[in-house]
Amino acid sequence: SAASTSTTVWLAARGVQASLEVCASGAVAFSGLRQLATNAMFRLESKTSTVSSSFASGSNFIGSFSVSGSETTVVGCIPTTATATSKIGTCGGGSSSSFTVVAASTANVEFGQPCSNPAGCGSNGRPEWDRDYSSSADWAAFNSRGSGDFTLSSNTATNTLTVRVASGVGGTFWLISKKYAPTMRPDGTIYNLTVAATPSTGSIGSIGVGIFEQFKWDDASWGLPDDWHIGANGSVIYTAAMGSPRTASWSIPGSRPIGGGYIGVRFQLAATPTGVWNVTFNPLKFFSPAGPYLLSELVTQVSAGYVNIPKMPSALDANPRTTSDCPHLQSGLLEWSDPATWGGSVPSPSSVVTLPANSKVIISSASSVDPTAVYQKIVVPQGSELIFGEADISLTARGIEVNGALRMGSPTCRLTSRIVVTFVGAKTNSDEICTGCGAKGIAVGPSGLMELHGHQYHFTWSRLSATIYPGDDKLWMMDGTNWEVGQKIAVTTTLFKDYYEGPGDEVRTIVDISADGKVITVDRQFEMTHYAGWEYQAEVVLLSRRLVIRGDDAPL
Q1: For residue 425, is it left (φ>0), alpha (ψ between -120 and 50) or beta?
Q2: Pairwise CA distance, residues 407 & 264, whole Å
Q3: What's the 3-state SS for 524-551?
Q4: Rounded to 5 degrees, what are φ and ψ at 229?
Q5: DSSP label at 515?
Q6: pLDDT tens digit string along 253-274?
Q7: With a threshold of 0.90, does the pTM exceed it?
Q8: CA dihedral 517, 522, 526, 529 (to 10 degrees)
């Protein structure tokens, strides 16, 4: 909650979980507002001047509104009662949230700005998402008397986890997740956490859950079996408990951004077992329903942060196409698959293939070379050229030696086809391509030339303009691009300790992209959080290219 009696109030990018109240003697102006809960309350008042407010891109208000002033304007919601000086109504079907504006002069309210991709702002913009923890490898087991009093096992057929409690062991039992709990969205999204436990005999006295940014056991924890105990470096995100349940469910509101955490399940048996007890847990599920993407003001930015990283100018990323300078369209070319090129028969891939002297040989189509064969070695002698045509071509070889020229397109005739050259071979210290050239690759000699000119992508990387949360299948970038459906991208980690918490980079395939190239839908939901704030944003990198020269990991 905030209040002010200043002459003029101007603020940008404010998210409201509980209430925002401003009363000023002068003008009041807010931009980038975001509603973070279904019971948020807004009240903006100016005693002598104007009030204006707008919500962040994609962050539409849901609730009732009342706007009054000498002249009123409401954008984004249709009032049920409207006069020149008053507008009253509801937005998005209504909720317990309210938005009140009282102005001595004009009042202008914009309840929702359109997203660059309208589908991302609808009620079904963000798909539902769940993660279950059912493997014994997901958990560490503890007991208030020690860690060796009970054991874990998992059943992949039934997708259950079983805790085996030894005879005579009582106290409090803990299961602590080894993998990170999902980061919760700070926009009021409700997450559901469910636990279902069935003891083989007897009953469970109590069960509870907790989510912690860090969980650290020390000696004091054994003396506090009934409390959530964390080390000095930890902090509690959420805790809840229920009495004597076999199935428990908790609704957890996402109220602040959390950079991951650990889930703890605590349970007590109603009585100390006289024999071995098996407590079977159905998968602990963490679930969030489908909902809108609520975006920040960064979506409208092309740059943010303390360091503005320069990018290549767009003039260098043109894709000219003039046929007069296309190597594959010049006259006098010899076709690779034509026996006449080789004096009678096309050489075997298992031999060393040397282009004829002073010739220009073209691989014009996918059938020109055998895509399943491994060419032992291809030699382009001085005075000769190996040219790739405008076709999807796959060539596999152990090595290529270029003393003449190897060409794929030109600076003014960029190829749009997909050409992949793959090199194979076992690790060796031998020079298999040429003296001092090693093996498994291309060697270009002093007289040689290699030119590769494929379709250029602008930019080849950008930065997020909205944080990605687990379960998201869309991302927003600051820069427009000419990326394409089917290409692979990588989103870099923003974990503070990537080496400790696990690799945070994620690779996805583009399945849809907006006309301006800024909004991307991917093939799989993201598992990690990738942060984008005013001070720093995760990078998005394009991995795919039309022309690919690569080495195969597996030796042949």
Answers
A1: left
A2: 60
A3: CCCCCCECECCCCECEEEECCCCEEEEE
A4: -110, 125
A5: T
A6: 665 545 556 777 777 777 777 7
A7: no
A8: 0
